[in-house]
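Let us work through a complete example step by step.
Step 1: write down the sequence.
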Amino acid sequence: MDFILGLERWLHFLAGITWIGLLYYFNFVQVPAMAAAAADKDGPGPAAIGKYVAPRALLWFRWAALVTWLSGAAYLESAPHLSFIDAFTLQGSSQIIGVGAWLGTIMLFNVWVLIWPAQKKVLGIVQASDEEKNKARRVALLASRTNTALSIPMLLFMGASAHGLPF
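Step 2: predict the structure and record it as tokens.
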């Protein structure tokens, strides 16, 4: 049982690092790079990023989000001192990690329900008018920035639960 519990935890960590790393990449590297590429009239433009980098990064991003959530849920249910139900109802010894779990759940929702459908329009994976693409860009940007902001307290509550910080 300890081996499975450790495996669930490490899978959760590795998937979470991938998810949050890509989230920060999108917000702090790719979005500014796309704007700079679009503004550079003598350069190659943002097409290479949009065609080759963004779809691959979004693939890893959305599946890392799902694996992070699922492995976290499995860990909550398997760990002897935690409970999935207690975490999501903010009860018992799972209250602190529950706040982090709720933030992660909101972030997962944003990835799959807001960001990914919007990015499919922006990248031309699905047909969309210019007006729909512009709206999709805004939705994706706001949801991604929201996730970036939520990631900070989410990581704080996850770390506090594991390391006994006084919250």
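Step 3: interpret the result. The two ends are 29 Å apart (CA to CA).
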